[in-house]
From TrEMBL:
Organism name: Piscinibacter gummiphilus
Family matches, as InterPro entries: Flavin_trans-like (IPR036551), Flavoprotein (IPR003382), UbiX-like (IPR004507)
Entry EC number(s): 2.5.1.129
Pfam families xref list: Flavoprotein
Class of the enzyme per the UniProt entry, highest EC level: transferase
The reaction(s) this protein catalyses: dimethylallyl phosphate + FMNH2 = prenylated FMNH2 + phosphate
Domain Flavoprotein: 10-176
Record's protein name: Flavin prenyltransferase UbiX
Protein keywords: Flavoprotein, FMN, Lyase, Prenyltransferase, Transferase
Function: Flavin prenyltransferase that catalyzes the synthesis of the prenylated FMN cofactor (prenyl-FMN) for 4-hydroxy-3-polyprenylbenzoic acid decarboxylase UbiD. The prenyltransferase is metal-independent and links a dimethylallyl moiety from dimethylallyl monophosphate (DMAP) to the flavin N5 and C6 atoms of FMN.
Molecular function via GO: carboxy-lyase activity; flavin prenyltransferase activity
Length: 193
């Protein structure tokens, strides 16, 4: 009996217009380095924000992924549960996208892919970016958590005494990779005092 080949992790990555585009970009870089297959969908505001914060245009951003989709293409592979993925992360996740997922709107490919991830009981990590939170934000975070998503604001850990913003971003991304089940993830752990 022949064994079927082990495929690399297949992860959907969403990037929205919230601040923190570096998290999505670094995640794409780390997924590629780990041998994982990435499927990218970026909102129009996400494209603007990636350019504003990092100086990358759509082409340079999409080149970091194995496959990139237009957010209006609701007929794309990632819009169907029959397209097997292991997880999805929205990095960063705007409050608009959080609300869309919380209320099951599926009004574009990004929120539809998140909806599919939840309905198929796959891991969805939402790196929400806003502060302070209002009651609508908190209720939407509660709703997606009750649906099975992991709400993961990208808050840096300081116990390992990071020396740069890059170190803080890297540590957060490694923690997300571990949540996604990517075996190459290497988050720093707390070893006690």
């Amino acid at each position: 009996m022949t064994q079927s080949p082990v495929r690399p992790a297949r992860v959907v990555v969403g990037i929205t217009g919230a601040t923190g585009a570096v998290y999505g970009v670094r995640l794409l870089e780390r997924l590629r380095a780990a041998g994982a297959e990435s499927h990218l969908v970026v909102s129009p505001a996400g494209v603007l924000n990636v350019f504003h914060e990092l100086g990358l245009d759509r082409g340079a951003l999409e080149a970091l992924a194995h496959t990139a989709y237009n957010p209006g293409d609701v007929g794309a592979a990632i819009a169907s549960g029959s397209f097997a993925t292991d997880a999805m992360v929205i990095a960063p996740c705007s409050m608009k996208t959080l609300a869309s997922v919380a209320h099951g709107l599926s009004d574009n490919l990004l929120s539809r892919a998140a909806d599919v991830t939840l309905k198929e009981r796959r891991r969805l990590v939402m790196m929400v970016r806003e502060t302070p939170f209002n009651l609508a934000h908190l209720r939407n975070m509660t709703a997606v958590t009750e649906m099975g998503a992991v709400v993961f604001p990208p808050l840096p850990a300081f116990y390992h005494r990071p020396q740069s913003i890059d170190e803080m971003v890297d540590d957060t991304v490694e923690r997300v990779l571990a949540l996604l089940g990517v075996s190459a993830a290497a988050p720093k752990s707390w070893n006690g005092l």
